[in-house]
Automatic annotation (TrEMBL):
This is Ferrochelatase. It comes from the Bacteria. Fe(2+) binds at residues 211, 292. It catalyses: heme b + 2 H(+) = protoporphyrin IX + Fe(2+); Fe-coproporphyrin III + 2 H(+) = coproporphyrin III + Fe(2+). It is found in: Cytoplasm. Belongs to the ferrochelatase family. PANTHER family: FERROCHELATASE, FERROCHELATASE, MITOCHONDRIAL. One of its GO terms (molecular function) is metal ion binding. GO terms for cellular component: cytoplasm. HAMAP family: Ferrochelatase. The gene is hemH. SUPFAM superfamilies: Chelatase. Catalyzes the ferrous insertion into protoporphyrin IX. Its EC number is 4.98.1.1.
Length: 343
């Protein structure tokens, strides 16, 4: 094992210093074939995401999947790209969440950094930056409200991988998921109410669409589906809605395996035939808007719903950098930071 030679030499104060690290999934640097290929290759080579043995999976991934998919995905990213920031929405909003949380914690001398599990800015750079600011303890917040090994666990793995090469290791506290945390549910309810108020129509249903997961992951003990259920039960309760007014579905299927059901697209395209022609869709599994919310739902699903006879379709924005989202991140950070306090 070689040590990371750039381990910060900035000494923390004697009483210690805490910092906060937000970790999100990652996103390509641009919409071109090579950038999208690089991103997908790193993402889909993660054995927390695709569990097949590399000897079998890598030839399929490198030879078949990555020959074509980056073209299609790149075109999809181009439709949602933030041209002013020249970055994907996931990166723009994650950065703004970190900046706004940093403003809230600055007076307490607590720096905030952000890193991506795949691609840039890396988790390793974010950890180094916190240490350069004198931190010897880090609160790590994986930006996934519901736990999954494919997201939360691999984000934490990446933080510990960065620590593996450090001579002077900070103490790390990884945050548990927060599927029905009151501040999370309050922020979601607020985004529903704000969006509905501004809509020119009244939705007959608000479909809650979560990112999907291969069914086998749940069978092997991933708690993701149960945690999605906890979110939706709490959100319905806070809005006074019945299950048929806010059904739960799962989107973004990838590959040949069976994923957890019901699938979003067939569910939604079946609604007009039942007389439900005006809907809104909320995606409470995503802390920031991204390809899966803006394009897969906001563009593709909208077109499919209208083609199936639907009349009105709206998406409820993710929490992004709203004050309620920052309240949530601040609440989570402050309660975790107390875990570092010495009596
Ligand atoms: C087996 C493959 C995948 C699993 C398992 C998976 C789980 C999972 N993903 C998210 C959140 C996001 N996924 C995003 C994109 C995305 N996801 C997969 C595959 C799996 N996800 C792919 C191939 C892609 C890339 C997009 C494409 O090529 O079509 C994103 C958006 C990223 C962005 O840049 O905007 C998010 C966010 C969760 C929460 C999850 C498990 C619960
Ligand atoms: Fe995904
Ligand atoms: Fe997708």
């Amino acid at each position: 094992m070689t040590f990371f030679h750039k381990t910060s030499r900035i000494a923390p104060p004697p009483e210690g210093r805490s910092g906060v690290l937000l970790v999100n999934l990652g996103t390509p640097d641009d919409t071109g074939y090579l950038a999208v290929r690089r991103y997908l290759s790193e993402f889909l080579s993660d054995r927390r995401v695709i569990e097949s043995p590399p000897l079998i999976w890598q030839p399929i991934l490198q030879g078949i999947v990555l020959a074509k998919r980056p073209f299609a995905s790149g075109a999809n990213y181009a439709r949602i790209w933030d041209r002013e920031e020249n970055a994907s929405p996931l990166r723009v909003y994650t950065r703004r969440q970190a900046e706004k949380l940093g403003e809230r914690l600055r007076a307490d001398g607590i720096p905030v950094e952000w890193g991506m599990r795949y691609g840039q800015p890396s988790v390793k750079t974010a950890v180094a930056s916190l240490m350069d600011q004198g931190c010897d303890r880090i609160v790590c917040i994986p930006l996934y409200p519901q736990y999954s090994a494919t997201t939360t666990a691999t984000a934490n793995d990446q933080v510990f991988r960065a620590l593996m090469t450090l001579r002077r290791q900070p103490s790390v506290l990884t945050l548990p998921s927060f599927p029905d945390h009151p501040l999370f549910i309050r922020a979601l309810a607020e985004s529903v109410q704000q969006t509905l108020k501004a809509l020119p129509f009244k939705p007959q249903q608000i479909v809650a669409s979560f990112h999907g997961l291969p069914k086998v992951c749940v069978e092997k003990g991933d708690t993701y589906r149960d945690e999605c259920e906890r979110t939706i039960v709490a959100l319905r309760k806070s809005l006074g809605l019945e299950p048929d007014q806010m059904p739960m579905t799962f989107q973004s299927r990838f590959g040949p395996l069976e994923w957890i059901q019901p699938y979003t697209a067939p569910y939604v395209t079946g609604l007009p035939a039942q007389g439900i022609k005006r809907i809104a869709v909320i995606m409470p599994g995503f802390m920031t808007d991204c390809l899966e919310t803006l394009d897969e739902i906001g563009n593709e699903l909208r077109e499919e719903f209208i083609a199936a006879g639907g009349e009105e379709f709206a998406i409820i924005p993710c929490l992004n950098d709203t004050p309620e989202a920052v309240d949530l991140l601040e609440g989570l950070s402050r309660s975790a930071l107390r875990g570092f306090a010495r009596e």
